[in-house]
Amino acid sequence: MKWRNRRSSQNIEDIRGSHQPRRAGKKTGGLMAIVITLGAMYFGVDPKLVLGIVDGLSAQAPSAQQTNYRPSAKQQQLGQFVGVVLADTEDTWNALFQQQGLRYKEPKLVMFTDKVRSACGHAEAAMGPFYCPGDHKIYIDLGFYQQLKERHNAPGDFAQAYVIAHEVGHHVQTLLGISTKVHQAQQGLSKAQANQLSVKLELQADCFAGLWANHTEKAKQILEQGDIEEALTAASAIGDDRLQTQARGYASPESFTHGTSQQRVKWFKKGFTEGSIQSCNTFS
After folding, report:
1. The pTM is what?
2. What is the tens place of the pLDDT at every residue in 215-247?
């Protein structure tokens, strides 16, 4: 991916190396519990491990305590890469929202180490990258990219960019009111039926990631040979069927929340090929 010497987003909060102490409070429930659970299941982490450490939604986060952290040259470069990818998503979605007569509110992206406190509660890096609608922020421990390469066999900078674009896709869903409608529709449904709606929500975020790749390539010619394959490999690697089979030897379709490997690849490709918001209607 051609990313060097391009604009970096100003919406980056780099708190890597900071220590954020926990603060006791009300446990997460309702919508935010669903959000945190989905984030945990995104990469095969037991949601109970995450929900067990999540604090209150409304408690004010304590101030981060600075440590003697000094990013290496590799870590600095990775942070710069994330800033460029986020800037590309801003350019894409600002233009698309403007075409619809809407205003795009750019999300913040928080780079942290080990654990972080958000408006959705206290979370560990083990749950993977996640988007919190409570503060319109994306959270990522960049050490996750090493896991993506080693645990999921999905290396490459465009695979890393796909992860960010997917989380930005959830931000877009929040701004458009899609996430709220889905969570409202899930109330009163069986767990299996609610999971089906979660799958559609996640597949749409994959499609939005493909849409971002389409528009950024047209505007800036960023793609290099093998980039799209990297994204497709990452999408396939984190399908519910593959993650569950890896974890316990079999898959339970009724418990899927993000879609199969085949579905995730299909919807990313659809967004990349067609490049319109309308093409990403996974609910039809």
Report:
1. 0.82
2. 999 999 999 999 999 999 998 988 999 889 988
